[in-house]
Amino acid sequence: MKFGVMMFATDYSISPAKLAVEAEARGFDSMWMPEHSHIPASRLSPWPGGADLPKQYYDVIDPFVALASAASVTSKLLLGTGICLVVQRDPLQLAKEVASLDLISNGRFMLGIGGGWNAEEMANHGTTDFKSRFKLMRERVEAMKMIWTQDKAEYHGEFVDFDPVMTWPKPVQKPHPPIIVGGGFPVGAKRAIRYGDGWMPIDGRGWDIMESLSQFRQMAAAEGREPDDLPVSIFAASQKPERIATYRDAGVERLVFGLPSEGEDKIIPMLDDLAKLMAV
């Protein structure tokens, strides 16, 4: 089983580049960066993680900038968005950002995606209706796949519609970087099966991931997807050794441990402790 780390990188946390170097040195396979373009002051949408929205959600820096800095100082560490809010990004521009980051990292990028929970944040972008966001996400992913794999790409959907375009670079990874679909069971799992290259549920969100794994694999098989085509990464994973062992026995590919938005003095010792869990 592989192990990664994720953190809301801010102006007061350890830098993404330093975190990447330290994570790679300790044998972690990946580093993941989340995003929010902004947080509306109204705060109408409830945060799924609890009552109070943590400060780092307001302060997080752009994940593509953060991961590009990490790519420049590492050679093996995989670099992922965890998650990218595809519904708030123009697909033509996002396709170029993904391909560019995959190029400068020499094929180490993973596009973790999700539909998001903050309706007001989406509305401020002017192109996203909360109720139809998942169909929009699917169309944008499908359109980007066309852009990454064709010299003259076009896409015609309900929300995404463009005539043939030419854009480079193309990703180093073929046919494109893996698309890891976040979300719960069963709807997030269904999206992963339909157009993803992996599923990434969040640990500890009020449902038992273990009970869902076998159902997910059965659903995938029914759609002609092989287990190796849809590995499972568990986001914000439990750090309890017994739980880690259970996930390993269940064939989970990766656990991604969450780190607080803190400085080097606190994060580096945490990395040392987390590295010990890889031997569980």
Describe the structure.
The protein has 280 residues and is α/β, with parallel strands linked by helices. The protein has one domain (2-277): TIM Barrel (Alpha-Beta Barrel), CATH 3.20.20. The chain has helices at residues 16-25, 56-59, 63-71, 91-104, 119-125, 133-149, 187-195, 209-222, 241-249, 264-277; strands at 2-7, 30-33, 78-85, 109-114, 153-156, 161-165, 179-182, 198-200, 233-235, 254-259. The strands form 2 sheets. An 8-stranded parallel beta sheet has the order 8-7-4-3-2-1-10-9. It has a two-stranded antiparallel sheet with strand order 5-6. Strand 9, helix 9 and strand 10 form a beta-alpha-beta unit. Helix 4 (91-104) crosses helix 6 (133-149). The chain is globular and about 50 Å long. The termini are close together. The mean pLDDT is 96.
Q: Helicity level, as a percent range?
A: 25-40%
| Strand content range | 15-25%
β-strand number? 10
Unreliably modeled segments: none
- Characterize the quaternary organization of these chains: single chain
Here the CATH topology equals TIM Barrel
**Radius of gyration from the CA trace?**
18 Å
The CATH superfamily is: Luciferase-like domain
CATH class: Alpha Beta
Class by helix and strand content? Answer: alpha/beta
Order of helices and strands: EHEHHEHEHHEEEHEHEHEH
Cα distance spanning the termini:
10 Å
Strand order of the largest sheet: 8-7-4-3-2-1-10-9
Number of domains: 1
Largest sheet: 8 strands, parallel
Count of helical stretches: 10
Question: What does the overall shape look like?
Answer: globular
